[in-house]
Amino acid sequence: MAPSDEVGRREFLTLLGAGAALLAGCAPGGSGTTPGGGTARPLSAAFNQAINDLDPHGASAVDEASLLANRQIYDTLVTRNGGEAAPSLAISWRQPDEKTWEFTLREDVTFHDGSKLSSADVKASLERLAASTGPQKPLWASIDAIQAPDAKTITITTKEPLGTLLVNLSLAFILPAAQLGKEGFFRKPVGSGPFAVESFTPSAQLLLKAAPKYWGGAPALTGLRLPYIPETSTRMTSLQNSEVDITWIIPPDELARLRGVDGLEVESTPGVNYFLTWFNCGRKPFADPQVRRALHHALDLKSIVASLYGEAATVMDAPIPAAVFGHAAQDPYAYDPDLAKKLLAEAGHGDGLRTTMMWFKDTGPLATELAQSFISAWAKVGVTVEAQQIEKAAWIKRLTALDWDIELQVNTVTTGDADYTLGRLYTSAANRMGYASKKLDAVLADARSTPDQDRRKALYGQACEIIWKDAVGIFPAALSATYGLRSTVKGFQPAANGQPEFRTVSTAG
């Protein structure tokens, strides 16, 4: 059972008290002096998922909460700006040939421990990431060599042309080479980002302080506080009471209510977060695509999504959201329970079937209600589904072991590029849902290798069609990226991927 709102609130206040000792005089409502000489206070931003790990190359490398933290602490060679690659630690880059990329580094970058960034740090970080066995591994399989010919130059050679390299580098966080491998480093890691780690309690709270010598300009805030507040109602109450300044992942009913509260604002942008329901295509009965298609036809997704989410989500027409590069709209599966029964009977399940569905509660807004809507609809066509709402750690273990029948989750196309999701998760080698298609493998490999962005987009359109028609999963809803914030927060930009950056944010009052 999830904790009650009151228990969640007591836990939150306990964390607040613990943080106060570290941020003396800087709790919400207090003030301090910014590194640039102005006045501000630490900003408190509450996400609905726990930050468990600060290793940007490890098992949590694509976890939304970890990425949120990583973007404040570390830097990457390039970043994304309006869908295009933009300079970050690298001020420029060029391609001497189709398999070679040469990057020129900034000369004014220091880590939080005072050491100066050099190409040796970039080389060590990229090699560590390329050698990792974590969830980013498929993105770096084509790397052949990483060289540092001088202190401000990095050369990356790939085994074949890699049109996604710049996109992937926006996820490659750079660490100081001298610190890598030191025991306990990731309990209080060092980066070159706008905020440095003050303290970190996994699954509870991350406290950050401004890095006054940040190469991009000192943050306007004195610090940043990222508490974990799992209960939605507690987060909303904390926002209204000024205990937090910003929160996101807001259910529709709370969204409507927040819009009527004085002192609060709501900001939204088209999102790259979405719900997906995978079938375990390597396990009966879902090895049969006809069974998977039958379960599609049993769902009235328009009614389900409208009832649960209203304006906060849209029904998807592809395996990736419309805001993602490479999206291509597909013909929807018509809601037709009679057809669903017919397909099931033709597949040998005329008397119905029994199966299971797993998810973890905090995967996304109203996830349990969405799961129950699916289960109820499937029951009407003779499919009995055992609901398995489990803890996230158990869900991850079972997901990676393919120990499940149907699973529900929220996924994020963090880079805004189809390769991050389609090319990383749907290949035969990835084997993330027991699905294998040589045709899809070839399309995705071609899309990853070509530097022609128009061709890449067309190829991902083909991939969308294959995945959709093979009914590898059901993709019910793309979520708007909606944030609730105090009117005292200035300079905040809502992030489509749910991982906002806070360097330019300030608070007034």
Keywords:
509 residues, alpha+beta, D-Maltodextrin-Binding Protein, domain 2, Dipeptide-binding Protein, domain 1, Dipeptide-binding Protein, domain 3, 3 domains, 29% helix, globular, disordered N terminus
Write a structural description.
The protein has helices at residues 5-22, 64-73, 119-131, 165-169, 232-240, 252-258, 289-297, 301-309, 337-346, 367-379, 392-400, 418-425, 438-449, 453-469, and strands at residues 32-33, 39-40, 43-46, 75-76, 78-81, 84-87, 90-97, 100-105, 143-150, 153-158, 173-174, 195-201, 205-210, 223-227, 246-248, 264-279, 313-315, 353-359, 383-389, 406-412, 473-486, 489-490, 506-507. The chain is of the alpha+beta class and 509 residues long. It has three domains: 5-72 and 193-245 and 488-507, D-Maltodextrin-Binding Protein, domain 2, CATH 3.40.190; 75-174, Alpha-Beta Complex (Dipeptide-binding Protein, domain 1); 271-480, Roll (Dipeptide-binding Protein, domain 3).
